[in-house]
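[09:14] KT: can someone run the structure on this one? pasting the chain below
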Amino acid sequence: MRTLLIIIAGLALLGIVLVAGAKMGGTGTMVTAARLFIPFWLAVAVINMWIGVARAGYSVAEEFPIFLLIFAVPTVAALLVWWKFS
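[09:31] RB: done, structure tokens below
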């Protein structure tokens, strides 16, 4: 359940960033916003993985597939926006 909430939060954050980019300067700024979102979201996913390993007691092997899922879903959405509008 927590994984799903984090993915939804990532998609919502991407939506907010894209809307802000569109308001600031159109599709070119949306592409820049999508490009900047990806490394930011990587950092969020790594922090989430670290919390799972350090505090929740999961091993890296157990937490890595969850990390990939949390990182991949919003990143694929950002890449689709980047591809469509560039």
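[09:33] KT: thanks! The mean pLDDT is 95.
[09:34] RB: yep, looked fine to me
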